[in-house]
Design goal:
By secondary structure, this protein is α/β, with parallel strands linked by helices. Helix content is 37%, strand content 15%. The site of pyridoxal-5'-phosphate has 12 residues, from helix 4. GO terms for molecular function: cysteine desulfurase activity.
Length: 447
Protein backbone atom coordinates (compact mmCIF):
# COMPACT_ATOMS: atom_id res chain seq x y z
CA UNK A 1 0.00 0.00 0.00
CA UNK A 2 1.18 3.53 -0.69
CA UNK A 3 1.99 5.46 2.46
CA UNK A 4 1.66 9.19 2.79
CA UNK A 5 5.00 11.01 2.44
CA UNK A 6 3.17 13.94 0.99
CA UNK A 7 3.72 17.66 1.27
CA UNK A 8 0.85 18.64 3.53
CA UNK A 9 -0.97 21.89 3.07
CA UNK A 10 -0.46 23.75 6.33
CA UNK A 11 -2.77 26.66 7.01
CA UNK A 12 -1.52 29.96 8.30
CA UNK A 13 -1.93 30.18 12.11
CA UNK A 14 -4.28 33.12 11.74
CA UNK A 15 -6.70 31.03 9.73
CA UNK A 16 -6.97 27.93 11.88
CA UNK A 17 -8.54 28.36 15.26
CA UNK A 18 -7.09 26.29 18.06
CA UNK A 19 -10.59 25.02 18.76
CA UNK A 20 -10.71 22.71 15.77
CA UNK A 21 -7.01 22.05 15.27
CA UNK A 22 -6.56 20.82 18.83
CA UNK A 23 -9.67 18.74 19.13
CA UNK A 24 -8.95 15.94 16.69
CA UNK A 25 -5.77 14.22 15.57
CA UNK A 26 -4.19 15.20 12.28
CA UNK A 27 -5.27 12.98 9.36
CA UNK A 28 -2.59 12.84 6.68
CA UNK A 29 -3.21 12.34 2.97
CA UNK A 30 -3.73 8.73 2.00
CA UNK A 31 -1.48 9.02 -1.03
CA UNK A 32 0.65 11.72 -2.66
CA UNK A 33 -1.08 13.74 -5.36
CA UNK A 34 0.49 16.19 -7.78
CA UNK A 35 -0.04 19.83 -6.87
CA UNK A 36 -0.37 19.13 -3.16
CA UNK A 37 2.17 21.86 -2.44
CA UNK A 38 0.64 24.47 -4.77
CA UNK A 39 0.70 27.98 -3.33
CA UNK A 40 -2.07 30.39 -4.32
CA UNK A 41 -2.50 34.15 -3.78
CA UNK A 42 -4.99 35.47 -1.22
CA UNK A 43 -6.43 38.93 -0.69
CA UNK A 44 -4.04 39.68 2.18
CA UNK A 45 -1.30 39.88 -0.43
CA UNK A 46 0.67 36.71 0.25
CA UNK A 47 0.39 33.09 -0.84
CA UNK A 48 -0.97 30.11 1.08
CA UNK A 49 -1.07 26.41 0.40
CA UNK A 50 -4.03 25.53 -1.81
CA UNK A 51 -6.73 23.54 -0.02
CA UNK A 52 -8.29 21.58 -2.86
CA UNK A 53 -11.80 20.60 -1.82
CA UNK A 54 -13.11 20.14 -5.33
CA UNK A 55 -12.24 16.50 -5.98
CA UNK A 56 -15.71 15.64 -7.27
CA UNK A 57 -15.18 17.98 -10.22
CA UNK A 58 -11.64 16.78 -11.02
CA UNK A 59 -9.37 14.99 -8.60
CA UNK A 60 -5.66 15.76 -8.76
CA UNK A 61 -3.59 13.01 -10.37
CA UNK A 62 -1.96 10.58 -7.99
CA UNK A 63 1.79 11.14 -8.06
CA UNK A 64 2.33 7.48 -9.01
CA UNK A 65 -0.08 7.83 -11.95
CA UNK A 66 1.61 11.02 -13.16
CA UNK A 67 5.00 9.26 -13.04
CA UNK A 68 3.74 6.32 -15.10
CA UNK A 69 2.11 8.61 -17.66
CA UNK A 70 5.33 10.63 -17.96
CA UNK A 71 7.18 7.34 -18.52
CA UNK A 72 4.76 6.33 -21.27
CA UNK A 73 5.25 9.70 -22.93
CA UNK A 74 8.93 8.86 -23.29
CA UNK A 75 8.11 5.71 -25.27
CA UNK A 76 5.35 7.16 -27.35
CA UNK A 77 4.67 6.43 -31.03
CA UNK A 78 1.77 5.68 -33.36
CA UNK A 79 -0.80 3.21 -32.11
CA UNK A 80 -2.31 0.21 -33.94
CA UNK A 81 -0.70 0.89 -37.30
CA UNK A 82 3.06 1.09 -37.03
CA UNK A 83 5.55 -1.78 -37.21
CA UNK A 84 8.26 0.20 -35.41
CA UNK A 85 9.28 -0.94 -31.95
CA UNK A 86 7.78 2.04 -30.10
CA UNK A 87 4.56 1.68 -32.08
CA UNK A 88 4.38 -1.90 -30.89
CA UNK A 89 5.09 -0.82 -27.31
CA UNK A 90 2.42 1.89 -27.52
CA UNK A 91 -0.15 -0.48 -29.05
CA UNK A 92 0.53 -3.08 -26.38
CA UNK A 93 0.21 -0.45 -23.69
CA UNK A 94 -3.09 0.79 -25.09
CA UNK A 95 -4.60 -2.69 -25.31
CA UNK A 96 -3.23 -3.66 -21.89
CA UNK A 97 -4.99 -0.60 -20.47
CA UNK A 98 -8.35 -2.16 -21.40
CA UNK A 99 -7.52 -5.27 -19.43
CA UNK A 100 -6.40 -3.30 -16.37
CA UNK A 101 -9.68 -1.35 -16.42
CA UNK A 102 -11.69 -4.54 -16.95
CA UNK A 103 -9.93 -6.16 -13.99
CA UNK A 104 -10.41 -3.15 -11.73
CA UNK A 105 -14.17 -3.00 -12.25
CA UNK A 106 -14.43 -6.81 -12.41
CA UNK A 107 -15.81 -6.85 -15.95
CA UNK A 108 -16.81 -10.01 -17.76
CA UNK A 109 -14.17 -11.47 -20.10
CA UNK A 110 -16.36 -10.83 -23.13
CA UNK A 111 -17.37 -7.26 -22.21
CA UNK A 112 -16.26 -4.53 -24.60
CA UNK A 113 -14.07 -1.89 -22.97
CA UNK A 114 -14.35 1.26 -25.08
CA UNK A 115 -12.23 4.30 -24.32
CA UNK A 116 -14.08 7.60 -24.63
CA UNK A 117 -13.33 11.23 -23.84
CA UNK A 118 -15.08 11.20 -20.45
CA UNK A 119 -18.29 9.96 -18.76
CA UNK A 120 -20.42 12.30 -20.85
CA UNK A 121 -19.00 10.83 -24.03
CA UNK A 122 -19.37 7.29 -22.65
CA UNK A 123 -23.05 7.86 -21.92
CA UNK A 124 -23.61 9.41 -25.34
CA UNK A 125 -22.09 6.24 -26.78
CA UNK A 126 -24.46 4.20 -24.61
CA UNK A 127 -27.37 6.22 -26.00
CA UNK A 128 -26.12 5.40 -29.49
CA UNK A 129 -26.06 1.61 -28.90
CA UNK A 130 -29.19 1.27 -26.74
CA UNK A 131 -32.04 -0.15 -28.82
CA UNK A 132 -35.16 1.00 -26.93
CA UNK A 133 -36.62 3.05 -24.07
CA UNK A 134 -34.60 4.15 -21.07
CA UNK A 135 -35.74 4.77 -17.51
CA UNK A 136 -33.81 7.49 -15.66
CA UNK A 137 -34.16 9.36 -12.38
CA UNK A 138 -34.60 13.13 -12.17
CA UNK A 139 -31.68 13.45 -9.73
CA UNK A 140 -29.05 12.63 -12.33
CA UNK A 141 -26.10 14.70 -13.50
CA UNK A 142 -27.02 16.18 -16.90
CA UNK A 143 -24.56 13.74 -18.48
CA UNK A 144 -26.90 10.88 -17.55
CA UNK A 145 -30.08 12.78 -18.35
CA UNK A 146 -29.83 15.02 -21.38
CA UNK A 147 -28.32 12.48 -23.83
CA UNK A 148 -31.22 10.10 -23.11
CA UNK A 149 -33.78 12.88 -23.66
CA UNK A 150 -32.49 13.75 -27.13
CA UNK A 151 -34.97 12.38 -29.69
CA UNK A 152 -33.81 9.26 -31.53
CA UNK A 153 -35.62 7.98 -34.61
CA UNK A 154 -38.09 10.81 -34.12
CA UNK A 155 -39.08 10.11 -30.54
CA UNK A 156 -37.97 10.77 -26.97
CA UNK A 157 -37.02 7.42 -25.44
CA UNK A 158 -36.37 8.68 -21.91
CA UNK A 159 -38.91 7.91 -19.20
CA UNK A 160 -37.98 10.09 -16.26
CA UNK A 161 -38.93 8.84 -12.79
CA UNK A 162 -39.14 11.38 -9.97
CA UNK A 163 -36.98 10.24 -7.07
CA UNK A 164 -38.94 9.95 -3.84
CA UNK A 165 -38.00 11.10 -0.33
CA UNK A 166 -36.48 7.71 0.46
CA UNK A 167 -34.35 5.28 -1.48
CA UNK A 168 -36.87 2.54 -0.67
CA UNK A 169 -39.75 4.46 -2.24
CA UNK A 170 -37.58 5.40 -5.20
CA UNK A 171 -36.87 1.74 -5.88
CA UNK A 172 -40.61 1.07 -5.80
CA UNK A 173 -41.23 3.93 -8.27
CA UNK A 174 -38.53 2.65 -10.63
CA UNK A 175 -39.96 -0.85 -10.47
CA UNK A 176 -43.45 0.45 -11.23
CA UNK A 177 -42.17 2.33 -14.28
CA UNK A 178 -40.30 -0.70 -15.61
CA UNK A 179 -43.34 -2.90 -15.01
CA UNK A 180 -45.73 -0.48 -16.72
CA UNK A 181 -44.08 -0.80 -20.12
CA UNK A 182 -40.96 -2.62 -21.33
CA UNK A 183 -37.73 -0.61 -21.39
CA UNK A 184 -34.31 -1.58 -22.71
CA UNK A 185 -32.32 0.08 -19.98
CA UNK A 186 -32.31 1.61 -16.52
CA UNK A 187 -29.60 4.30 -16.47
CA UNK A 188 -28.72 5.40 -12.95
CA UNK A 189 -26.00 7.15 -11.02
CA UNK A 190 -24.03 5.19 -8.44
CA UNK A 191 -23.41 8.24 -6.26
CA UNK A 192 -24.93 11.72 -6.47
CA UNK A 193 -22.51 14.42 -7.52
CA UNK A 194 -24.47 16.93 -5.41
CA UNK A 195 -24.81 15.11 -2.09
CA UNK A 196 -22.51 12.10 -2.44
CA UNK A 197 -25.31 9.71 -1.47
CA UNK A 198 -24.69 6.19 -2.76
CA UNK A 199 -27.47 4.23 -4.44
CA UNK A 200 -27.96 0.46 -3.98
CA UNK A 201 -26.64 -0.72 -7.33
CA UNK A 202 -27.17 -4.46 -6.83
CA UNK A 203 -30.81 -3.93 -5.93
CA UNK A 204 -31.35 -1.60 -8.88
CA UNK A 205 -29.76 -4.20 -11.17
CA UNK A 206 -32.09 -6.91 -9.85
CA UNK A 207 -35.11 -4.67 -10.41
CA UNK A 208 -34.04 -3.88 -13.98
CA UNK A 209 -33.35 -7.51 -14.80
CA UNK A 210 -36.64 -8.65 -13.27
CA UNK A 211 -38.40 -6.57 -15.91
CA UNK A 212 -36.21 -7.54 -18.84
CA UNK A 213 -34.16 -4.32 -18.86
CA UNK A 214 -30.41 -3.88 -18.60
CA UNK A 215 -28.73 -1.42 -16.25
CA UNK A 216 -26.17 1.27 -17.00
CA UNK A 217 -24.38 2.71 -13.99
CA UNK A 218 -22.88 6.20 -14.10
CA UNK A 219 -19.95 5.55 -11.78
CA UNK A 220 -18.26 8.93 -12.27
CA UNK A 221 -18.53 9.70 -8.55
CA UNK A 222 -18.13 6.17 -7.23
CA UNK A 223 -15.30 4.42 -8.98
CA UNK A 224 -12.51 6.16 -7.05
CA UNK A 225 -14.25 5.84 -3.70
CA UNK A 226 -15.93 2.45 -3.37
CA UNK A 227 -15.23 -1.01 -4.78
CA UNK A 228 -17.38 -1.77 -7.79
CA UNK A 229 -17.85 -5.11 -9.48
CA UNK A 230 -19.69 -5.43 -12.76
CA UNK A 231 -20.14 -9.15 -12.16
CA UNK A 232 -21.20 -9.16 -8.53
CA UNK A 233 -23.38 -6.04 -8.73
CA UNK A 234 -25.01 -7.38 -11.90
CA UNK A 235 -24.13 -4.31 -13.96
CA UNK A 236 -24.56 -4.43 -17.73
CA UNK A 237 -22.84 -1.13 -18.62
CA UNK A 238 -20.54 1.05 -16.55
CA UNK A 239 -19.32 4.56 -17.41
CA UNK A 240 -16.70 6.69 -15.69
CA UNK A 241 -14.05 9.38 -16.24
CA UNK A 242 -10.34 9.20 -15.53
CA UNK A 243 -10.08 12.75 -14.23
CA UNK A 244 -12.35 12.04 -11.26
CA UNK A 245 -10.35 8.93 -10.42
CA UNK A 246 -6.86 10.45 -10.00
CA UNK A 247 -5.86 10.25 -13.67
CA UNK A 248 -5.04 13.40 -15.64
CA UNK A 249 -7.80 14.79 -17.89
CA UNK A 250 -8.77 13.38 -21.22
CA UNK A 251 -10.26 9.90 -21.14
CA UNK A 252 -13.25 7.92 -19.95
CA UNK A 253 -14.59 4.42 -20.33
CA UNK A 254 -17.77 2.64 -21.29
CA UNK A 255 -17.58 -1.05 -20.49
CA UNK A 256 -20.32 -3.60 -20.93
CA UNK A 257 -22.07 -6.31 -22.89
CA UNK A 258 -20.71 -6.61 -26.41
CA UNK A 259 -23.90 -7.46 -28.31
CA UNK A 260 -25.31 -3.91 -28.26
CA UNK A 261 -21.90 -2.45 -29.15
CA UNK A 262 -21.58 -4.81 -32.12
CA UNK A 263 -25.14 -4.38 -33.35
CA UNK A 264 -24.92 -0.57 -33.49
CA UNK A 265 -23.41 1.50 -36.28
CA UNK A 266 -19.97 2.83 -35.39
CA UNK A 267 -20.16 5.80 -33.02
CA UNK A 268 -17.54 7.50 -35.18
CA UNK A 269 -16.93 6.41 -38.77
CA UNK A 270 -13.35 6.40 -39.96
CA UNK A 271 -9.99 4.67 -39.90
CA UNK A 272 -9.41 2.04 -37.28
CA UNK A 273 -13.09 1.04 -37.09
CA UNK A 274 -13.05 -0.76 -40.43
CA UNK A 275 -12.09 -4.32 -41.37
CA UNK A 276 -12.59 -3.71 -45.11
CA UNK A 277 -13.73 -0.81 -47.28
CA UNK A 278 -14.94 -1.34 -50.83
CA UNK A 279 -16.72 1.51 -52.57
CA UNK A 280 -16.83 -0.06 -56.07
CA UNK A 281 -20.23 0.18 -57.68
CA UNK A 282 -21.61 1.88 -54.65
CA UNK A 283 -22.16 5.57 -54.15
CA UNK A 284 -21.73 5.45 -50.41
CA UNK A 285 -19.88 3.25 -47.93
CA UNK A 286 -22.34 0.36 -47.94
CA UNK A 287 -19.51 -1.99 -48.88
CA UNK A 288 -17.66 -1.22 -45.66
CA UNK A 289 -17.19 -4.01 -43.15
CA UNK A 290 -16.86 -2.64 -39.64
CA UNK A 291 -14.89 -4.24 -36.84
CA UNK A 292 -16.70 -5.70 -33.90
CA UNK A 293 -15.55 -5.03 -30.34
CA UNK A 294 -14.13 -1.79 -28.99
CA UNK A 295 -12.41 -0.80 -32.25
CA UNK A 296 -15.83 -0.41 -33.93
CA UNK A 297 -16.51 2.69 -31.81
CA UNK A 298 -12.99 4.11 -31.53
CA UNK A 299 -12.29 5.40 -35.05
CA UNK A 300 -9.36 7.76 -35.44
CA UNK A 301 -6.12 7.82 -33.47
CA UNK A 302 -7.07 7.02 -29.90
CA UNK A 303 -6.04 8.87 -26.76
CA UNK A 304 -3.30 6.47 -25.72
CA UNK A 305 -2.05 8.54 -22.82
CA UNK A 306 -5.60 8.96 -21.57
CA UNK A 307 -6.12 5.20 -21.62
CA UNK A 308 -2.76 4.63 -19.93
CA UNK A 309 -3.60 7.19 -17.28
CA UNK A 310 -6.96 5.58 -16.48
CA UNK A 311 -5.37 2.16 -16.28
CA UNK A 312 -2.59 3.44 -14.00
CA UNK A 313 -5.19 5.14 -11.80
CA UNK A 314 -7.16 1.89 -11.56
CA UNK A 315 -3.99 0.01 -10.63
CA UNK A 316 -3.07 2.63 -8.01
CA UNK A 317 -6.57 2.59 -6.50
CA UNK A 318 -6.46 -1.20 -6.33
CA UNK A 319 -3.12 -0.98 -4.56
CA UNK A 320 -4.40 1.57 -2.05
CA UNK A 321 -7.31 -0.75 -1.39
CA UNK A 322 -11.00 -0.02 -0.84
CA UNK A 323 -10.73 -0.38 2.94
CA UNK A 324 -8.04 2.29 3.28
CA UNK A 325 -9.83 4.60 0.85
CA UNK A 326 -13.16 4.12 2.64
CA UNK A 327 -11.65 4.69 6.07
CA UNK A 328 -9.80 7.85 4.99
CA UNK A 329 -12.96 9.33 3.51
CA UNK A 330 -15.06 8.27 6.50
CA UNK A 331 -12.74 10.01 8.96
CA UNK A 332 -12.56 13.19 6.91
CA UNK A 333 -16.31 13.10 6.23
CA UNK A 334 -17.19 12.74 9.90
CA UNK A 335 -14.92 15.63 10.78
CA UNK A 336 -16.43 17.79 8.05
CA UNK A 337 -20.03 16.90 8.93
CA UNK A 338 -19.47 17.48 12.64
CA UNK A 339 -17.83 20.83 11.95
CA UNK A 340 -20.53 21.99 9.53
CA UNK A 341 -23.20 21.05 12.08
CA UNK A 342 -21.62 23.49 14.55
CA UNK A 343 -21.75 26.46 12.17
CA UNK A 344 -24.88 28.62 12.33
CA UNK A 345 -26.82 28.82 9.09
CA UNK A 346 -25.18 25.91 7.30
CA UNK A 347 -27.78 23.65 5.70
CA UNK A 348 -26.56 20.36 4.30
CA UNK A 349 -28.14 18.98 1.13
CA UNK A 350 -29.60 15.50 1.19
CA UNK A 351 -31.85 13.76 -1.31
CA UNK A 352 -32.95 10.70 0.65
CA UNK A 353 -33.90 10.48 4.30
CA UNK A 354 -32.80 6.82 4.44
CA UNK A 355 -29.42 6.94 2.66
CA UNK A 356 -26.70 5.21 4.65
CA UNK A 357 -23.54 5.79 2.63
CA UNK A 358 -21.96 8.89 1.13
CA UNK A 359 -18.76 9.39 -0.82
CA UNK A 360 -16.55 12.38 0.01
CA UNK A 361 -19.00 15.08 -1.01
CA UNK A 362 -20.80 17.63 1.15
CA UNK A 363 -23.31 19.91 -0.55
CA UNK A 364 -24.65 22.78 1.54
CA UNK A 365 -25.88 26.36 1.63
CA UNK A 366 -25.26 29.11 4.18
CA UNK A 367 -28.13 31.36 5.17
CA UNK A 368 -27.67 34.87 3.89
CA UNK A 369 -24.91 34.17 1.40
CA UNK A 370 -25.11 33.34 -2.26
CA UNK A 371 -23.17 30.18 -3.16
CA UNK A 372 -20.86 32.13 -5.47
CA UNK A 373 -20.14 34.61 -2.68
CA UNK A 374 -19.13 31.78 -0.36
CA UNK A 375 -16.92 30.12 -2.97
CA UNK A 376 -15.23 33.41 -3.89
CA UNK A 377 -14.68 34.28 -0.23
CA UNK A 378 -13.12 30.86 0.44
CA UNK A 379 -10.83 31.27 -2.52
CA UNK A 380 -9.79 34.88 -2.20
CA UNK A 381 -9.49 35.05 1.59
CA UNK A 382 -8.35 31.53 2.41
CA UNK A 383 -6.95 29.82 -0.69
CA UNK A 384 -9.64 27.11 -0.51
CA UNK A 385 -11.14 25.68 -3.70
CA UNK A 386 -14.75 24.43 -3.60
CA UNK A 387 -17.42 24.23 -6.28
CA UNK A 388 -20.54 26.38 -6.32
CA UNK A 389 -23.54 26.47 -8.62
CA UNK A 390 -25.98 23.87 -9.83
CA UNK A 391 -23.45 21.11 -10.46
CA UNK A 392 -24.94 20.17 -13.87
CA UNK A 393 -27.93 18.83 -11.98
CA UNK A 394 -30.48 21.62 -12.36
CA UNK A 395 -33.61 19.47 -11.81
CA UNK A 396 -32.15 18.13 -8.57
CA UNK A 397 -31.17 21.56 -7.25
CA UNK A 398 -34.69 22.80 -7.97
CA UNK A 399 -36.31 19.94 -6.13
CA UNK A 400 -33.93 20.41 -3.19
CA UNK A 401 -35.25 23.96 -2.98
CA UNK A 402 -32.08 25.66 -4.21
CA UNK A 403 -32.67 26.65 -7.82
CA UNK A 404 -29.96 29.29 -7.44
CA UNK A 405 -27.40 26.63 -6.53
CA UNK A 406 -25.34 25.59 -3.52
CA UNK A 407 -21.77 25.03 -2.36
CA UNK A 408 -20.01 21.67 -2.63
CA UNK A 409 -16.89 20.59 -0.77
CA UNK A 410 -15.44 17.30 -1.92
CA UNK A 411 -12.33 15.39 -0.99
CA UNK A 412 -10.33 12.23 -1.52
CA UNK A 413 -6.96 10.54 -1.28
CA UNK A 414 -4.83 13.69 -1.21
CA UNK A 415 -6.95 15.50 1.36
CA UNK A 416 -5.73 16.08 4.91
CA UNK A 417 -7.64 17.09 8.01
CA UNK A 418 -5.99 20.51 7.71
CA UNK A 419 -7.89 21.08 4.48
CA UNK A 420 -11.14 20.26 6.25
CA UNK A 421 -10.27 22.38 9.31
CA UNK A 422 -9.38 25.37 7.16
CA UNK A 423 -12.76 25.15 5.45
CA UNK A 424 -14.59 24.86 8.77
CA UNK A 425 -12.78 27.79 10.28
CA UNK A 426 -13.31 29.96 7.24
CA UNK A 427 -17.03 29.14 7.14
CA UNK A 428 -17.28 29.63 10.89
CA UNK A 429 -15.79 33.10 10.59
CA UNK A 430 -18.13 33.94 7.73
CA UNK A 431 -21.19 32.79 9.62
CA UNK A 432 -20.16 34.54 12.83
CA UNK A 433 -19.30 37.76 11.02
CA UNK A 434 -15.76 37.75 12.38
CA UNK A 435 -13.97 37.65 9.04
CA UNK A 436 -12.19 40.81 8.05
CA UNK A 437 -13.65 40.26 4.59
CA UNK A 438 -17.14 40.78 5.94
CA UNK A 439 -17.61 44.44 4.88
CA UNK A 440 -16.68 43.54 1.34
CA UNK A 441 -19.09 40.62 1.46
CA UNK A 442 -21.90 42.86 2.60
CA UNK A 443 -21.34 45.13 -0.37
CA UNK A 444 -20.63 42.64 -3.06
CA UNK A 445 -22.01 39.25 -2.34
CA UNK A 446 -25.21 39.00 -0.31
CA UNK A 447 -27.62 36.28 -1.35
C1 LIG B 1 -22.32 11.67 -11.57
C2 LIG B 1 -21.64 12.31 -12.75
N1 LIG B 1 -21.88 11.83 -13.98
C3 LIG B 1 -21.28 12.34 -15.06
C4 LIG B 1 -20.42 13.39 -14.97
C5 LIG B 1 -19.77 13.92 -16.19
O1 LIG B 1 -18.39 13.65 -16.15
P1 LIG B 1 -17.45 14.25 -17.26
O2 LIG B 1 -17.51 15.72 -17.14
O3 LIG B 1 -16.10 13.70 -16.93
O4 LIG B 1 -17.96 13.78 -18.57
C6 LIG B 1 -20.15 13.95 -13.73
C7 LIG B 1 -19.25 15.11 -13.58
O5 LIG B 1 -19.26 15.81 -12.61
C8 LIG B 1 -20.77 13.38 -12.58
O6 LIG B 1 -20.54 13.86 -11.36
Amino acid sequence: MLSAPVATVRPTPAVVSAAIADRAPFIPALAPVVGADAQVPVAAGHRVGYANLDYAASAPALASVAAQVAGALGEYASVHRGAGHLSQVTTRRYEAARETVRGFVRGRVDDSVVFTRNTTDAINLAVHITPGDVVVLDIEHHANLLPWCAPKDGRNRARVVTARATIEDTLVAIEAELASEPASLLAVTAASNVTGEVLPISRLASIAHRHGARILVDAAQLVAHRPISIVSHGIDYLAFSGHKAYAPFGAGVLIGRSDWFDAADPYLAGGGATADVDLRGDENSAGTTWHTGAARHEAGSPNVLGAVSIAEACAALAELGPEAIGLHELELGERLDAGLARIDGVRPLQIFTDSTDRVGIAGFTIDGFAPRAVAEYLSSEHGIGVRDGKFCAHPLLKRLGHPEGAVRASFGAGTTSDDVDRLLNALGALSAGTTTARPELDEGYPA
